[in-house]
Design brief:
The protein is of the alpha/beta class and 149 residues long. The chain contains two helices and eight strands; from the N terminus they run βββαβββαββ. The protein has a single domain (2-144), classed as D-tyrosyl-tRNA(Tyr) deacylase (D-tyrosyl-trna(Tyr) Deacylase, Chain: A, 3-Layer(bba) Sandwich), CATH 3.50.80. Helix 2 (99-116) links the parallel strand 6 (72-77) and strand 7.
Length: 149
């Protein structure tokens, strides 16, 4: 699994031009699932996300997690994170998991996140979405469960 984490002061997602979901201070997590991913990948990444010390403490030092600041999560499926651009100009998404593999893993990731942060919001797998966010810092972090070391 690959993720892009953005620390935000607020974010809003519009799904299929109508349904809207919003969060305040927290993290927007773009989640890309590939065929080789399993629940263990989701568990490892979610633990890292929840405990990353990327929010400022009282001294302005990034020393607090999203749990510490009682922040929010917004989780959005993003198959394009697995784009290969090695050949030609059209990205290939051959490494991205097909829906029959990706949907259950995305749902699992979301359910696990909701257990830790019940105010977690999400996109909708396979839907057209627009995300408006205010990146705080800016702080943007990329992680891959296949590169744990």
């Amino acid at each position: 699994m690959k993720i892009v984490i953005q620390r935000v002061t607020k974010a809003k997602i519009t799904i299929n031009h109508s349904l809207e979901r919003e969060i305040g201070q927290g993290l927007v997590v773009l989640l890309g699932i590939e065929d080789a991913d399993e629940k263990e990948d989701a568990d490892w990444l979610l633990k890292k996300i929840l405990h990353l010390r990327i929010f400022d403490d009282e001294n302005g030092i990034m020393n607090l997690s999203v749990l510490d600041v009682k922040g929010n999560l917004m989780i959005v499926s993003q198959f394009t994170l697995h784009a290969s651009t090695k050949k030609g100009n059209r990205p290939s998404y051959i490494r991205a998991a097909k829906p029959e593999k990706a949907v259950p893993l995305y749902d699992y990731f979301l359910q696990q996140a909701l257990q830790s942060l019940p105010q977690t919001k999400s996109g909708e797998f396979g839907a057209y979405m627009n995300i408006a966010l205010e990146n705080d810092g800016p702080v943007t972090i990329i992680m891959d469960s296949k590169n744990k070391e």
